[in-house]
Design goal:
Layout lengths: L1 E6 L2 E6 L2 E5 L20 E3 L5 H4 L2 H8 L3 E2 L2 H11 L6 E2 L6 E4 L2 E7 L15 E7 L2 E5 L8 H8 L4 E5 L8 H11 L3 E5 L11 H11 L3 E2 L7 E2 L2
Parallel strand pairs: 3-4, 4-5, 5-6, 10-11, 11-12, 12-13
Antiparallel strand pairs: 1-2, 1-14, 2-3, 7-8, 8-9, 9-10
Helix pairs in contact: 5-6
The structure holds nickel (II) ion and manganese (II) ion.
Length: about 230
């Protein structure tokens, strides 16, 4: 599997012709590594409905026909925009797993808030994505909470995509404790340096995690990829 960082919290996970897009916020993202009209997508997954996560979902889904997975209230809003174009939406809630021929995605808790730009209130989630035999955990915009350990205990995580920017999510110091609880071999930081309020030192995060845990931190610049 290849994990491509598209900037902010957006990633493309690819394996054998499948591309799973997560939180494709590209238009208006000063760190976007691609434009919305050039990305392939087999499936689109959303952690929550804030503008910096829902992003270009509707445009990409309409162009590619990729089904969208999002928590039920958010999926409901998107279905209203996508159903007329024949694009499917899947509407699990926390704890729900949606299976595809490429693998599966499970929604897990994330402590945050969320209302879409159109006003739909929705509960934020983290995403466990199993693709190509690996499990990737996108934390969404969470703060530090104790059940991160339970999530990783239940579904061992190979790679965690972890928010570290602070202000709207946990900061790089709390994220070290999160990395300790999750215990994934690989940690990829995200949701930092996109805007002034979430600037942080990813190399310091890497040094702290690698000093206190057995995880390796892979700092990706937007556009770079990592294959675990
Ligand atoms: Ni958010
Ligand atoms: Mn965010």
């Amino acid at each position: 599997m290849e994990i491509r960082f598209l900037g902010h919290a957006a990633f493309a996970l690819s394996h054998e012709g499948t591309t799973v897009l997560i939180d494709p916020f590209l238009t208006g993202n000063p760190k976007a590594a691609a434009s919305a009209d050039e990305l392939e997508a087999t499936t689109i997954l959303l952690t929550h409905g804030h503008a910096d996560h829902i992003g270009d979902t509707v445009a990409i889904a309409k162009r590619t026909g990729a089904p969208v997975v999002a928590i039920v209230e958010l999926a409901g809003e998107l279905a209203g925009e996508l159903a007329a174009d024949g694009v499917a939406t899947h509407d699990p809630n926390l704890g729900g797993t949606v299976a595809f021929d490429w693998g599966w995605v499970k929604l897990v808790p994330a402590w945050h808030t969320s209302t879409t730009p159109k006003g739909t209130v929705n509960t934020p989630a983290g995403l466990l994505v199993n693709l190509g035999g690996s499990t990737v955990y996108h934390t969404g915009d969470t703060c530090l909470f104790g059940d991160l350990a339970l999530i990783a205990q239940r579904d061992p995580v190979d790679v965690v995509l972890m928010c570290i920017g602070g202000h709207y999510t946990m900061d790089r110091h709390d994220a070290v404790a999160a990395a300790e609880m999750i215990g994934a071999p690989t940690v990829i930081p995200m949701h930092y340096d996109t805007f002034g309020l979430i600037e942080t030192d990813a190399q310091a995060f890497k040094a702290d995690v690698e000093a206190r845990t057995s995880s390796s931190v892979v700092v990706l610049s937007p556009g770079e990829s990592h294959s675990p």
